[in-house]
Amino acid sequence: MFRALTMLILVAVGSTVALGKEPADTNYDEAKVPAYDLPDPLIDHAGQSVGREEWMMHRRGEVLRMFEESVYGKTPSQELSVRYEVMETDPNALGGRATRKQVAAFFGEDAYRIDILIYLPNAPEAPVAGFVGLNFNGNQTIHSDPGILDQGTGKERGSSASRWQVEEIIDRGYAVATIHRDQVDPDNYRNDFTDGIHPLFYREGQTKPEPTEWGSIGAWGWALSRVLDRLEMEPRVDATRMAVVGHSRLGKAALWAGAQDTRFAMVISNDSGCGGASLYRRCFGERIHHMIKPVGYWFCTNHHQYQHREDALPVDQHMLLALVSPRPLYVASATNDRWADPKGEFLAAKHASLVYELLGQPALTQEDFPAPGQPIHTTIGYHLREGDHDITAYDWEQYLRFADQHLSR
User: Fold this and answer.
1) Helix, strand, coil % in the chain, rounded to nearest 5
2) In this predicted model, what pLDDT tens digit does every residue of 171-227 receive, in sequence order?
3) Where is the 4-O-methyl-glucuronoyl methylesterase-like domain (predicted)?
4) What is the Cα–Cα distance from 218 to 304, expressed in whole angstroms?
């Protein structure tokens, strides 16, 4: 019983930091960061330098496949049948500022259900841009709005409202859509891929993903694309101007979704850390072997072989960020979130700039790691915020400003 309780606490934040003690081998000393060479995103498997055309024609696909094989696993290409049912609509939500719509998506001959919560601003007449993201604890937690259907997670209505800033998003003229991550794939230490979306894709006799097939991050990313599918049906939404956003492990999922699905017009990673925006090879803060025991199911099984040998990975996370190019990308960090390696997140964004510049987009030109509260807003955005591992009103203000710059018409 004690072991089970302990594991649940670990999984609650994805690391042993939840218990107030970090692994003994955690490095927070820049002087102990090993010397490393990053894989060059612009050198292909044949050892040839690639230009703009070669990147688009074949090198991008090579990089994507390496992430499938060594980090997140391959997402099934099989399309499931889907039926949508509008469960509830209120055109006067949030004091008349928004229309709230709640849609149930039934996949695979109604075998699996995912509930989508959508808020649409009432003020703009033209179709609007917006944000798509997963939530941690149930749709009812993102706002105290009593009309949100309770998903039975046991989490209090509005308890995560600070992480969503729904009124600010609506008042700036953007839509927002969210789903609960556990409806897609339960995020718990017993995850054996039997009670989420995975079984709908198993071939006959299969009981778990193959070593190079998707884990939970892959499933969450897949679901973000399915929300975008539904938004393409909304006449008041311009689905060509939707940003995908995520915090922490859901920031990892947002990055992977944005890398795979180029329909997302902008990608935002908030404190996504190891396996997200930060460089593996720095071996700073959280590392692969810290994740594998409690949350190895986030990744494909093949990823486990790189414990204590990050330098053997054929990729690093600057290459994941480069897969977003030439679309706008925002990476954010927090000063107290050393576990996520803020400097490693900045450096990954900076090294991704090589591909952005190749594709004719201005990227990060700042050489030095910025001080807190000095956001950079080019085609790649970055900021370091004072404070803890969280997504806050300050973060959202930067994302909204960035959206105004890149998603407005």
Assistant:
1) 40, 20, 45
2) 999 999 999 999 999 998 888 999 999 999 999 999 999 999 999 999 999 999 999
3) 211-360
4) 16
Helix ranges, 106-248 (H): 166-171, 181-184, 216-231
State the CATH number of the domain containing residue 209.
Answer: 3.40.50.1820
231 within domain boundaries: yes
Concerning whether 290 is annotated as a catalytic residue, the answer is no
- Across the beta sheet with 380-385, the strand order is 82-92, 98-107, 112-121, 175-180, 128-135, 237-247, 266-270, 329-334, 380-385, 376-377
Could you give the CA distance from residue 192 to residue 207 in angstroms, rounded to a whole number?
A: 9
Catalytic residue among 143, 247, 290, 389: 389
304 is annotated as an active-site residue: no
CA–CA distance, 200 with 182 (Å, rounded to integer): 16
Residue 192: count of CB within 10 angstroms of its CB? 12
Among 70, 248, 325, 333, the one annotated catalytic = 248
Beta bridge partners of 205: none
What domain count does the chain have? 1
At residue 35, φ and ψ (nearest 5 deg) are -65, 140
Decide if 356 contacts 341 (C-beta within 8 A).
no
298 within domain boundaries: yes
Chain segment 309-329, per-residue pLDDT in tens: 999 999 999 999 999 999 999
At which residue do the structure tokens 């991704």 appear? Answer: 352
Place 17 in a pLDDT band, splitting at 50, 70 and 90. Answer: low
How many Å apart are CA 149 and CA 134, to the nearest integer?
16
Q: How confident is residue 9, by pLDDT bands cut at 50, 70 and 90?
A: very low
- Please report the pLDDT score of residue 261 as a whole number: 98
Instruction: State which residues form the domain around 176.
Output: 62-406
Q: Does the pLDDT at position 4 exceed 60?
A: no
Whose tokens are 């990308």? That residue is 329
Residue 42 lies in a domain: no
Q: Are 114 and 66 in contact (CB under 8 A)?
A: no
Residue 37 lies in a domain: no
Max Cα distance, the chain (Å): 59
- pLDDT given for residue 257 in this prediction: 99
Distances in Å between the alpha carbon of 161 and those of 48, 138, 272?
49, 11, 19
For residue 326, cis peptide bond before it (omega within 30 degrees of 0): yes
